[in-house]
Amino acid sequence: MTHATADAPLWDRSAAELAAGIRAKSFSATEVAEAFLARVEATNPALNALVDVRPEEALAQAAAADAAVAAGGDLPPLLGVPVSTKINTSQRGYASSHGVPAWAGAVAQQDAVCIAALRQAGATLMGRSNSPAFAVRWFTANDLHGKTLNPWHPGHTPGGSSGGAAAAVAAGMTPISQGNDIGGSIRFPAYCCGAVGLRPTMGLVSGMEPRGAVEFDSPLSFQTMAVHGPLGWTVDDVRLGLHAMVTPDLTDPVGLAARPPLGEPHRVKVAVVRDAGAAKSHPAVNAAVDDAARWLSEAGHEVEEVELPLLGEAARLWSLLLYQELKTMMSEIDQFGDDGVRVSLASSFAAAAEIWGEQPTLTDYIRGYARRGTLISRLQQFLGQDRIVLTPVAAEPPFEQDADLAGDTRVSELLAAQWPMQAVPVLGFPAVSVPTGLRDGLPSGVQLIGGRFQEDLLLHVATAIEARAPRTRPTLSWTRTG
């Protein structure tokens, strides 16, 4: 892996290096903010990753950070570190638009709990990242803010729904981005853009939004599957972002009363799962798994290939539980959504019908949630305290742009390819997407799944892959044409 050197530009340094340098007065938070704002100005017009950047606010936060350094005393861990936030998460003074034109004026009066945690940790909040309307596509485009492009190749998706967050990190606009994940929306964009993305254990980071004029009754799948988490250019960036975002919160239906221990680094058994019965992996995907397995063996971990069919079963449950509940929201999506989300969901529902039939019954749904509990217990028993699972991130390389608008047949292939993304949210376990280099000019990577609240162990293992994987920044040598 290539690491930033002492003479690297500030925008190409890790969050930990930036935080330490600001504390040591090697450079100021204002200098950091100026460097990242210049990077945004240089790269964002091509990518459209960040959709609401306010330089004067970022510089004001940086000036406050410099004043805190000058005053001395205890300093928060992310002091002066630039972080982007996603357009579907409330940040005071900014629209929680969800990419919907009708909601462009829905300005939040308060922060979501996870955004408040980042602010308390000292982060410089300096931009809102783009996502698809309603955050329900593995692609990032909407009628309000337009399309986000992959920094490596404009013909391929940057991922979704946190595609803007991942593209911003890869291009060096921020070292850390906040995202959220209900079906791969952190892990898949990180994979597509060559970044690191962590989906935490369910409940570790509060998902609570401030109460507004309209109270939204969150579907059960959202309560049990949707999480906030960090994306970063390095594993250390993600670790720092996670520890800042951990928020004990009993107002969250699945929230915790206190910060749990997040595991301790040690050697582990690595169970390699290539295929859970859903889709055969592309040769480039298998090569990435081979590389990661070899590197982890070299690092002293015990690696073995296993069959773990419960992951495939969990992925199939995802297409039942989530899509059945999304169908109850279609009147709002039809009213406010764009053609992209409507077409994508119609094909997604058709793909799910191939598994569950056109009209799954209430009994199917109830038994699905019952089965979920059994699978959670089985996976935790399998993992214990000393095993993780290594899988592909997806069975295909990053999809061609707008592949979910290409018809039911292609969407059925996408749904099958995303089995590693779908299995994890159903079960509520932590998982990290970590890059393994480039193949045919596109990022490649693998997913690591760990036991609940074993995030630090997962990140420790991810570091062994990162240390051996070749890494470069995208050059953005292409020109945006639309």
Description:
With 482 residues, the chain is an alpha/beta fold. It has one domain (10-466): Amidase signature (AS) domain (Amidase signature (AS) enzymes), CATH 3.90.1300. 41% of the residues lie in helices and 13% in strands. The protein is built from 16 helices and twelve strands. The protein has a ten-stranded mixed sheet with strand order 2-1-5-7-6-11-12-10-8-9, with helices on both faces. The protein has a two-stranded antiparallel ribbon with strand order 3-4. α5 (163-171) packs parallel to α6 and α12 (339-356) packs across α14 (408-417).
Give the structure's gist in a few sentences:
It is built from 16 helices and 12 strands. It is α/β, with parallel strands linked by helices. The mean pLDDT is 95.
